[in-house]
Amino acid sequence: MSAFDIRILGAGDEPRLEAFFADNPDLTLFQRSNLRHAGAIDDGRRYGGTYAAALVNDEVVGVVAHYWNGNVMPLVPSGGHDVRVLLDAALAASGRKIVGVVGSWDQVAATLMHPTVRGRIAKRCAREILFALPLTELVVPQALSAGDITVRSMGDDDLPLLAAWRVEYLVEMFDLPRTATTWDVAAQDVAALHAEGRAWVVEAQGRPVAFTGFNAALPDVVQVGGVYTPPFGRARGFARVAVAGSLLRARQAGADRAVLFTDVSNNAAQRAYRALGFEPIDDWGLVRF
């Protein structure tokens, strides 16, 4: 990247951010969804964040966002040094610590070279595969088509069970301890998904057996996340049904594309997602400290 100006964006800058993120739609669903919820204002509320932008001729050419939950999401095409320069600006403006890093693998790798995080012990540092699916090509599992298994929207009464499942998800995914703090995070996550209509429950013979949600959503595209099947229901295709059922709902609501990511070593999940029609499109990175 040539010489650029660095600016912390704010209220009124949403159109320029949206225009930049629109050039990389599959890589920026978190950012675009957060921007739709909270704008470019960082006031501590859920989905809000600090956006440190590189501008050339007043046009955004790179962004490092530092969100309310401590996650950093970089998108700086030149990578390397420029990622770290923008991260300096984002950290100075947000005043937060870095809890995690999410984005394309090369962007995550560049972020991990920043002095603030270099050498820190990570709870999870995973290279993942980013998958995408045009929803017209969704392959619906037979069990769902036949009605043997159903997928329904989460209800108020589901919150205690799904919060408990979310705790186990966080423990398995990020090696978090089973503490009151983890429980609070889990309950807040599930409650937010429910309030926004982005949470679904799979039932078999009237019994909840799996959960899925959209961790980001726009009218035309959704990002699947938080898929969880408790141990008693694993290896029975429930996760695949969960994802398919939620995507059918999204398609009915007007969405035409879905993305998700999973660990490069998680062959079972990759097979399940490929069976639904997903194809890999990029390398992804997920770090949590």
From TrEMBL:
It comes from Vineibacter terrae. Pfam families: Acetyltransf_1 (PF00583). The lineage of its organism: Bacteria, Pseudomonadati, Pseudomonadota, Alphaproteobacteria, Hyphomicrobiales. It comes from the Bacteria. GO terms for molecular function: acyltransferase activity, transferring groups other than amino-acyl groups. This is GNAT family N-acetyltransferase. Keywords: Acyltransferase, Transferase. Residues 149-289 form the N-acetyltransferase domain.
